[in-house]
Amino acid sequence: MRPLIRRFCAVLTLCWLAACAAPFDPAEELTADIPTRAVVAGVPLIQQADFYCGPASIAMVMQWAGADVTQADIAALSFSPGARGTYLADMIGAARRQGQFAVELSTFDALLAEVSAGHPVIVFQNLGLGVAPVWHYGVVTGYDLQSDQIFLNSGERDQMVMPFDLFARTWRRGNQWGLVILPPDQLPATATEAAALSAAAALERVKVYDAAETAYQTGAGRWPESWLWQFGLGNVRYAMGDMRGAERALLAAGRLAPDIPEIGANLATVRAALAGKGS
To answer: What are the CA-CA distances from residue 125 to residues 133, 169, 236, 261, 265 (Å)?
Structure first.
C-alpha cells in the first residue's frame, strides 16, 4: 500500500476505535500512587523507515539514554523481512545484544509508574481490528490523568497525543506488552528481583559480559541480602577471565548463603583455575 493511503487508512481506523473504545477509568485501572502528570524529557523522535517501528522505538530509547545507535543497527539484530516487522522476542533480544537491561511489563500501573520514574516505555499496539490487525510499536513518553491523555513517540509523526480510552484499547489488543530498556547500571522502577535477575542473566547468555557484570552489580546494590547477584557476578567474571574478581564475588555469595552447594562448587573451580595460573 502506498504510504499516503496507508496512513489515511490508519487515521480512519483510529477514528473508528475512538468511537467504540471502552471507557478508561483510572480509578479502576490504577492502584499505584503516581503523580497526576509526568513527562520524560529528551526522548528523540526518529522517523522510522518502512516497517521499522520496532527498531526505531529501541533506537529512540537508547539514544535518550546516551547510546550511539541507529534504527538500522537495531534492525540488523531484530527485523524479520518475511514478517515485515519485528517480533516481540527479537525486540528483547536486540536490546540485550546492545548491552541493555530489558524488562517486560504488562499493567497500566507499571507503565505509568515507569514513566513517572523518568523512564520511557516501548509498547506494542494493534491500531486495527482483531480481524485486521495493524501492529505497531511506539514509545510512551508521558501522561496526563487530568486531561485523560497519553503521549507517545510514534516513529511516523511528531509526538502523538492519544486519549487514554483509545490507548487502552489499542494496547490491550497488543496484550498489554511493554518493555523498559535501560543501561545496565540502572534498574526499572517496577522490576521484581526475579525479572531483574533474569534480564541480567540474559546479558550473560548473549555474552555481553561487561554489561552483565554491571547489571549484577546493580542488582546487588538493590537487593544486598540476596546471594544470587553475587553468584551471577562470580560466574560472569569467571567467563571474563577475572578469576580474582570471581573469587571475591563467590565468597560474598557464600557469606550470604553458606548452605548452597553450587556456590562452593563454583568457588572450587575458580580456585583451581587460580592454582593452575600460579596465582
So the answer is: 9, 9, 36, 45, 46
